[in-house]
C-alpha cells in the first residue's frame, strides 16, 4: 500500500513539473526579449522592432529618476521607430549631441546613458517637433501616424504585459520628465 501511495506522489510530482515546465516555456517565445513588434512603414514595407530585456532594464534604470516606469519605457522603445519614420518623412531630426544635452540637463548626476535612454530622449524631442508642425503638415502627419499605428502588432513577454504598454495611443507629445500629456 505504501508503494501505491509513493507512486501517486511521484506521478503527481511529475505532473506538477510537466505543467510548470509548460508554463515556463510559454514565457520564452522570444527568449531575452521584453517585446517584439512589427508595423507597416510609410513605404509599405514591414518593419520589425525588438526590445531586449537588457535594453529595457538599462533604460528604465537611467530614466527612473525622471519618473519613467518600466512599462512606460517599454512603450517608448516600441513606439520610437514609428515616430522616427514619421519624423524622417517630414525632415525632422535630433542630432546625437542634442540627445546627450537633453539627458544631461534632465539628469545632471548621471555620467553616461544607455542606448535605450538615448532613444527615449530622441523620441521625446521628435514628439515635440511633430507637435510644432503647421496645421496642414500636422493633419497629414496624423494620417500617416494613424496608418502605421493601425498596422502595429506586438508580442510582449508575459512579464511585461500588465499595462499593455505596446498599444499606440496617439501622437501627443512624449515629455522626457515622465509626465503623460
Walk me through the structure:
The protein has 181 residues and is mainly alpha-helical. The protein is 56% helix and 10% strand. The chain contains 6 helices and 3 strands; from the N terminus they run αββαααααβ. A 3-stranded antiparallel β-sheet has the order 2-1-3. The longest helix has 25 residues, at 2-26. It is flat and about 40 Å long. Residues 5-28 have low confidence and may be disordered.
Question: Helices, strands, pairings?
Answer:
Elements: H1 2-26, E1 33-40, E2 46-52, H2 53-63, H3 70-89, H4 96-106, H5 115-131, H6 135-151, E3 153-156
Antiparallel strand pairs: 1-2, 1-3
Helix pairs in contact: 2-3, 2-5, 3-5, 4-5
Total number of helices: 6
The fraction of residues in strands falls at 5-15%
- Summing up helix and strand content along with how strands pair, one would put the structural category as mainly alpha
Span between termini: 68 Å
Please tell me what the overall shape is: flat
Which residue ranges are poorly predicted, with pLDDT under 50 across at least 5 consecutive positions?
5-28
Mean pLDDT: 79
Work out the radius of gyration.
21 Å
Strand order within the widest beta sheet: 2-1-3
Spell out the helices and strands N to C. Answer: HEEHHHHHE
The largest β sheet comes out as: 3 strands, antiparallel
Number of extended strands: 3
Helicity level? 55-70%
Amino acid at each position: 500500500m505504501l508503494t501505491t501511495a509513493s507512486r501517486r506522489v511521484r506521478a503527481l510530482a511529475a505532473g506538477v513539473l510537466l505543467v510548470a515546465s509548460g508554463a515556463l516555456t510559454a514565457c520564452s517565445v522570444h527568449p531575452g526579449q521584453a517585446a517584439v513588434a512589427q508595423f507597416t512603414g510609410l513605404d509599405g514595407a514591414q518593419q520589425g522592432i525588438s526590445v531586449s530585456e537588457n535594453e529595457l532594464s538599462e533604460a528604465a534604470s537611467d530614466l527612473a529618476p525622471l519618473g519613467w516606469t518600466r512599462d512606460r519605457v517599454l512603450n517608448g522603445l516600441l513606439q520610437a521607430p514609428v515616430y522616427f519614420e514619421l519624423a524622417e518623412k517630414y525632415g525632422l531630426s535630433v542630432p546625437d549631441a542634442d540627445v546627450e544635452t537633453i539627458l544631461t540637463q534632465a539628469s545632471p548626476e548621471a555620467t553616461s546613458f544607455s542606448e535605450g535612454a538615448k532613444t527615449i530622449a530622441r523620441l521625446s524631442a521628435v514628439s515635440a517637433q511633430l507637435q510644432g508642425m503647421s496645421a496642414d503638415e500636422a493633419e497629414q502627419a496624423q494620417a500617416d501616424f494613424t496608418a502605421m499605428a493601425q498596422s502595429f502588432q506586438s508580442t510582449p513577454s508575459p512579464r511585461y504585459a500588465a499595462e499593455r504598454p505596446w498599444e499606440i495611443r496617439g501622437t501627443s507629445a512624449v515629455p522626457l520628465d515622465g509626465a503623460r500629456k
